[in-house]
Amino acid sequence: MQKEGFVSLWVGNINSSKEPDNLLKTSYTEDGDFIPSKFAHSFDIERYDDATREAEFYDDADNTLSGLLEDFSYDDIIIPKFSLVCGEHLNCHYNLVILLYNFKYEGVKKKTNVDTSELEFLDSVEYI
Length: 128
Description:
Order of helices and strands: EHEEHEHHEEE
Number of helices: 4
Number of domains: 1
Structural class: alpha+beta
Helix content: 10-25%
Largest sheet: 5 strands, antiparallel
Number of strands: 7
Oligomer: single chain
Radius of gyration: 14 Å
Shape: globular
């Protein structure tokens, strides 16, 4: 759900650097109707502002939040906040991060598989 000042965090494991584009690609029908991305569809997200989305694939998987979130927008604010709610060390090593800014995910799904990718929603925090 669109919510000013919040950022929602997903992590995952994918096989290649080309998969984020495939997961996050949106399109439109010939009539101009919006078709959500595979990522959005898998988490029952109707719409989000693609301009406020950041995603990164890492060649080497990491299990620390600070390692995964470093160099993202507002990293000095979101790293401590996500570390507080999720812990600094995650249970798995992840090579994909997806952040939706001005969005507070309140869906039911926490984990899902999309094609060959495994995605997990961690939490939402305020960033401003």
